[in-house]
Design a protein that fits this description.
The chain is built from six helices and four strands. By secondary structure, the chain is mainly α. A two-stranded antiparallel sheet has the order 1-2. The chain starts with a strand and ends with a helix.
Length: 167
């Protein structure tokens, strides 16, 4: 790669075309959008394929965890509001809540709050085990320190883009 000074006092590296076979010494010029997108697609597809084999979706897992995860039982609206940014569409989480109510994994109390049934809690515990196994596959050969460093870099990139977009 050819680093250059762009007049700001910062050294930049020329952007190279995405290359899945790029050697380690060429990675600095690779586009983050390509690599982060490929990582997202690959990991998400593997996770969703694994969950499909046990007749569960990733959003169902999110909802079970959210209903279980707070000090107070959330309403359907709270669950939808909190999880909608992760979903593929604005109505997906509400549909998932309906699916889990139908399946008997969730119930609604007289205050319109959601609760896990015994079957829902058993499913959540089992899914947590599956997700822990999947995490181990994804993290094979990657130390916790390397993982934290990668996430810190991604956070910094997000902040940089948000700051640039705001100005």
């Amino acid at each position: 790669m050819n680093p250059s000074n762009n007049g700001t006092g910062r050294t930049t590296t020329d952007q190279a075309p995405a290359d899945p076979a790029a050697s380690d010494d060429m990675l600095a010029g690779q586009p983050i959008g390509y690599w982060s997108g490929l990582a997202h697609d690959t990991v998400t597809r593997h996770l969703r394929d694994t969950l499909a084999r046990i007749d569960v979706t990733q959003p169902q897992y999110w909802v079970l965890n959210r209903v279980n995860g707070g000090a107070a039982s959330p309403s359907c609206e709270e669950v939808v509001s909190q999880l909608a940014p992760l979903a593929e569409g604005p109505y997906d989480i509400a549909r998932v809540v309906d699916q889990l109510l139908h399946r008997g994994w969730l119930e609604v109390d007289d205050r319109k709050c959601l609760h896990l049934t015994d079957a829902g809690e058993a499913a959540r515990v089992r899914l947590r085990e599956v997700m822990t196994e999947l995490r181990a596959v994804v993290h094979e050969g990657i130390s916790d320190e390397e993982y934290v460093a990668a996430l810190k870099v991604l956070r910094a990139m997000i902040r940089n883009v948000q700051a640039a977009s705001a100005s």
